[in-house]
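User: My collaborator sent over this chain with a note saying "see what the structure looks like." That's all I know about it. Can you take a look?
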Amino acid sequence: MRPNLKLILLCAGVAVALIAAGCGSDDGGGDDSSPELTKEEFITQADAICTDGEAELTAAAEEQFGSATEPPSQKEQEEFISTTVADNLQSQLDQIRELNAPDADEEQLNEILDSLQSLIDRARDEPAAVLAGEETGASELAGEYGLTSCGS
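Assistant: Without extra context I'll predict from the sequence alone. Here is the result:
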C-alpha cells in the first residue's frame, strides 16, 4: 500500500475510532421498546458498528485509490475525507444512536457524541484539518468510556 493511501486509511481509522463516541442518549437515540443495554453490551455493539464501518472505509479507499499508479493528490484525499469518510461516519453515528445506551452514562455519552458530530462536520467543511490529524478529542473520551474498536 502506498504511503498516502496508508495516511488516508489512518485518518479514516481515527475518524472511525471516534464513531463510538456517538453513543445513544435521550436526544433521539435508542429504541424505547427495547431494554436498556448494560455498559458492556453497549460497548460490544458500538465497537461492532465501528469495526464494520472501518472495513467499509478500507474497502472504499482501496477501490478509489488502490489501482492508481500515483499517490492521490491532496485534493483527492480531501474529497475522500469530506464525502466518503464523512458519510460513513454519519451512518455509523446514526446506527450507534439507535442503540439503547445506559441512561446512567447519558452525560458522558453526550459529551462524546458532541465531539464526534464536530469531527464529522469538520470532515465535511475542513477535510485538510482532519487529514492533518487535527481531531476533536472524541477518541480519548471514547477510550475513557471503555470503547476499544471505536476508542483506540
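A starting point for your reply to your collaborator: The chain has one domain: 3-23+36-145.
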